[in-house]
């Protein structure tokens, strides 16, 4: 169990959705980005300087959650990590979960 995903390469696409499994422990989701897969990852902020935060609530009896994202928010980000919780308040997932990422070519 962990609170921070492995790094993944978005390529020349944009992150358009996340699929969270039923075992997801309720937590905010934040993102960290880097210009290199093995580089230093920093929190992602929007154009107004606000940290990018998604609120996700575990729903009893629901197999999984499909969360639609604005791909423009992630334009220009090549390498990402997904954080359960925030940098200052990580939430360790009590179950082993696999968050699926949906990436589509932009343009």
What can you see in these coordinates?
The chain is mainly beta and 107 residues long. Helices cover 0% and strands 39% of the residues. It has no helices and eight strands. β3 and β4 (42-43) form a beta hairpin. The protein is globular, with a radius of gyration of 13 Å. The chain starts with 7 loop residues before the first strand and ends with a strand. The model has no long low-confidence stretch (mean pLDDT 87).
Spell out the blueprint of helices and strands.
Layout: E1 8-9, E2 13-21, E3 27-34, E4 42-43, E5 53-56, E6 64-68, E7 79-84, E8 100-105
In round numbers, the mean pLDDT is 87
Q: What's the β-strand tally?
A: 8
Helix percent reads: under 10%
* Envelope shape: globular
